[in-house]
């Protein structure tokens, strides 16, 4: 477990997981749009339009979903917490009975059980946290729903725009190169960065995180490219 002193990203570290998965989704979906458009033979202007439409709309939808999900978790926690506290206030023995059942299931017996139950029931906050965690598997979440939504959207845009950058540059100042190849290289770099962050968040090997992210993006791009190519040959 990382201590506060070992954190590389300060007070934003708890939101790294949202940044990572927002970035992965943004980069994968935008690159898939680019690959599908190239497969369909669309020109750069259309790729830019489709790419930014997807980037802004899909990013907003994902951030709203993340925000609402966090709000729902907090509301759910508050609901069960209030129900348990209400039951305890109406029946003083209820608190001790629930604590005894839970602590006994953890292996405590006899005098040790009585001592632990006494300690737990003295503090209502400690008691309710134990009940919710051990019996209902509900853990209080302190992260801000608004920050989760904002971080998700920002990462979706920041990482998701990478596949489009070369097309925007080409639109402003034409480049006599294979744009899709350049976009693929830039996107690969983006996947490496987000893969490293993914490994950091999940406490896994860096190489594994990078390769998994690269593979995900590659599969999505290949599928989108050939679907675009197939539909172009079928419809045009």
> Helicity level, as a percent range?
over 70%
Percent strand equals under 5%
Using only C-alpha atoms, the radius of gyration works out to 25 Å
Tally of DSSP β-strands: 0
Q: What order do the SSEs take from the amino end to the carboxyl end, as H and E? A: HHHHHHHHH
How many strands, which pairing sense, and closed or not: the largest β-sheet? Answer: none
Mean pLDDT: 85
Low-pLDDT ranges: 1-6
User: Number of domains in the coordinates?
Assistant: 2
Number of distinct helices:
9
Supply the helix-strand structural class.
mainly alpha
Roughly how many Å apart are the termini? 56 Å
Overall outline: elongated
Topology:
Elements: H1 16-39, H2 44-90, H3 92-105, H4 110-122, H5 124-135, H6 145-160, H7 162-172, H8 179-202, H9 206-235
Helix pairs in contact: 1-2, 1-6, 1-8, 1-9, 2-3, 2-5, 2-6, 2-7, 3-4, 3-5, 7-8, 8-9
Model description:
The chain is built from 9 helices and no strands. The chain has 236 residues and is mostly helical. The chain has 2 domains: 13-72 and 143-235, no CATH class; 74-135, no CATH class. Helix 7 runs antiparallel to helix 8 (179-202). The chain is elongated.
